[in-house]
Task: structure prediction
Amino acid sequence: MEHMGWLSLLPPIIAVLLAVITKNVIISLFSGVYVGVLMLVGGRPLEATMQTIGEFMFSQVADSYNAAVLVLLFFIGGFVALMEKSGGGAALANSATNLINSKAKAQVSAWIGGIIIFFSDLGTPLIVGPVFEKIFDKVKVSREKLAWIIDSTSSPVAVLIPFIGWGVYIMGLIKKEFDHLDITTSEFSTLIHVIPFQFYALLAVSMVPLVALLKLDFGPMKSAEDRASKGELYWKTSKPLRKAEDGGLKPSKPVLIWLPLLILFVTLFGLLASKGFPFKPVEGSAFRVALSTAYLFAAISLIILMISYKLKTFNEIFEIYTGGMQKMVYVAVTLVLAWSLSKVISEMGTASYIVELVKGNIPAFIIPAILFLVGAGMSLASGSSWGTFAIMLPIAIPMAVSLDAELLVCIGAVLSGGIFGDHSSPISDTTLLSSTGAGADHIDHVKTQFPYAAVNASIALIGFVIAGLTGNPYTIIILLAGLIALMLFLGKRKASKLQHSQELNS
Result:
């Protein structure tokens, strides 16, 4: 394929730099698109503006696949808003509070609660955190630990679920690149097969019960736990963020969370079972229609439940639903701009130029590890995993195909790199909300969480080298075994130091 040389690198570089400087994904992506179009039209600003809007942005919205994805996002947004405001998550957690009488039970319960609220990465901290903060105080577990747990079950869980907003967004990016490359594989089946290669997310989620059950705290978290065990809620210098409002709801019931989710799953599987789902690839359009229908039915059931329990009036509930849809406008605009940047990068031959530079100089097996490191650095600096996905996937997928690298591993590497930053960056929205939901000091949360994130990132990096060589999805088993071995080693080291200290004191 032809390319524009080093100039083809400017649009993604500008998008990355602006994402880091402005912390605004929309401005960054639009600027990258505009600069690319400006070069394509020979430096004529007015024509570049018209082309950016007409040939790149309008064409993306007019595409039937893209339009269906945008509509689906609005259905998801409305449902998620209802779930967050229904109080069902808090009621479900509250129903188990009497059974939580130890540190390990409190931590594992919060972890399970975070996984249950899989449908919203931003909702997890604000639903689970306020419910468990008093429980953690009672059993003398630190607020920093609670913040880490709910942060580890927000975006790391959401990115593993293919039928929520995260999955729909990622599939939209994958589909665009597959179309450019004439790849006929379903984007849904691709994302399913990528799950075992999402090393960072899987390690982050798995680490929580290991730390809780084996009592393997280390670094600043160990100091925070020692402080909490003495009954001291915060450090003297801490400035805890206020916890989220509860939405002014009356006492709710657990049925408001489990029944709508049950209806969602039954509807989705019922509509697609005749097509072989989930064991066979399903046509993209059929999947999107079924998923939109499932979210609509689930939302209707939740509205009926909220009215039945007299939690709010119908007008108030409908405002919540449409408000949730409105929140998806930001996601929709981001996705349209991501598709537009993908088209610009394709027309400028950015991936072809990178392949030309790399081919023969870097072995194909190391490509996933490089993509993970670049994605991790980008997301850590910008605080945005979605922006990282939008910029990196249009480059990573063509690179993997052209260099004969493992495609699924490369996609998993980009997603893992993005999640690392989303999970640990101090400017990430989920990191901020986790501090808020747990009622913890934000800097304390970042300091205590980062060593855990760094351990998982280091293991994931090794995994991408191994998977880059083998392409084997069972690599994750080796990594999980490595994580367990490392945690046990740290535990023995901790016990040895404690014993040595006691001997000296005696």
In short: Confidence is low (pLDDT under 50) at residues 242-249.
